Amino acid sequence: xxxxxxxxxxxxxxxxxxxxxxxxxxxxxxxxxxxxxxxxxxxxxxxxxxxxxxxxxxxxxxxxxxxxxxxxxxxxxxxxxxxxxxxxxxxxxxxxxxxxxxxxxxxxxxxxxxxxxxxxxxxxxxxxxxxxxxxxxxxxxxxxxxxxxxxxxxxxxxxxxxxxxxxxxxxxxxxxxxxxxxxxxxxxxxxxxxxxxxxxxxxxxxxxxxxxxxxxxxxxxxxxxxxxxxxxxx
Amino acid sequence: xxxxxxxxxxxxxxxxxxxxxxxxxxxxxxxxxxxxxxxxxxxxxxxxxxxxxxxxxxxxxxxxxxxxxxxxxxxxxxxxxxxxxxxxxxxxxxxxxxxxxxxxxxxxxxxxxxxxxxxxxxxxxxxxxxxxxxxxxxxxxxxxxxxxxxxxxxxxxxxxxxxxxxxxxxxxxxxxxxxxxxxxxxxxxxxxxxxxxxxxxxxxxxxxxxxxxxxxxxxxxxxxxxxxxxxxxx
DNA sequence: TTGATGATAAACAGCATTGTTGATTGATGG
DNA sequence: CCATCAATCAACAATGCTGTTTATCATCAA
Lengths: 234, 234
Hints:
Chains A, B: Residues 43-62 bind DNA. By secondary structure, chain A is mainly alpha-helical. Chain A contains ten helices and no strands.
């Protein structure tokens, strides 16, 4: 970052009445209410009230309730993205995947600290018509693809299926265990339980392969199909 | 009031008195609307309209909108339970776990054929204060516990975490891929993809253990902790 | 100062919903 | 055959939200 550290707030020409700040306040309030009542329960009245802003003002920033909701969702997504991947801009190809383990852990921690918010965001993503336009989902899936292509990964991972499973598991486990209404200590332990089970699953799976020879065969056959389809598509 | 002969023929033939059937019709309608609009969007008016029943009638069967929603949820849960575990009553201890593979597959198929309904039910389960009171969740978790104790399973499975992951993965994958608005053929293929990835994960995990010796050590240490806690609790 | 922009306040029509009440109808037992 | 009672229905009042509009105030830029 450039010499921005020395800049005193007086240097920057203050905005007239700081619409930016107002907008941010509205979005923050919307976030909080979204986490409390879910997307359906979000009313412009309540948002304005919580943001200490007139209802008309909210309508000036976001023409319709639906647009406010959409803006709030991507706002949350950005928050999540920063928490997991750091402050780097979206398109920076470097450091996309420092370590898969770290990404998984930071995601689990974020989810555990914001269970309701994570839940709501996830369901908006699922309901969205174009998931690919979501900042976090994009970067997350890219990073998982990179891992799957690396030599550290088992061969044959179905990245789409796997990304969905990991994402929703991580985000909904805190919801299931009621992470809100838990002590910080409990939450730490619950994150650890989840991470360990995920790690165990990643390293060992759940079934002893030697006990399921026929399934193993089936699996290899399916992988053969996939490879054949891929080469046929060329 | 004068004799009814002059009354305009807009009178709807009154439903035959059969409370059971009426109740079922209301619940079925609620199911359909639940799948379409989600729990928040469920209005008694619409339910009554779809069930071809007066709104007041619905209020007689379910005192409040909230109760209707709750009843509908367990109705769905029962449906799911039957689809996955068969018609046997809940408490029958026999045949609880014919084969874990079959359970997983039937669940995936149900989810793929009823994506919206599965999503809503799952959401209600997550929001519920006592998941243990849900018919399907109960039986599902029991069956998974049984498997984890069997000699076919890898040791050290955290059943709670794992049950949540498998359940939500199976139910939300169809939502993610927009199983509605897909052809039957597509849906079949998508079920297969999911099942294969789940199977692959169960048999092999995602990471090559030989590449992560330190993680393997960490995992064994964690398992040691758990065992120590368990023996300390005695 | 002036003009433009952001923010506030209040009021309005339209709509959908909730929950309640009293009337009506059909089944059923005596 | 009728009296009773529960199931059903139509209508009502109350509420809250949406989106729009109008008038007014505050703050900064030029």
